[in-house]
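WARN retry 2 of 3 for item q-0093 after timeout on previous attempt; input resubmitted unchanged.
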Amino acid sequence: MERGNRKTITGTVTSDKMDKTITVTVERLVQHPRYKKYVRKYTKLKAHDAKEEAKLGDRVELMETRPISRTKNWRLIRIIAKKGND
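OK item q-0093 returned
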């Protein structure tokens, strides 16, 4: 059975202190409506990391999923780059 297209997003792990949960900061560029300058905006997401393999500073890819808890709607797909190997 094929699932629908789910959103995927990449970001940087900013916290791995919780049990099976990581906090990921996602950066996006938004154009200012009046001045047309691009401004960086950041979003903090909580993601499910069942194997607890992502560490602080890693670049990770997340996929949207069903609500796992009150604030957790994303899960870890893969680690793109470890902290020291950018």
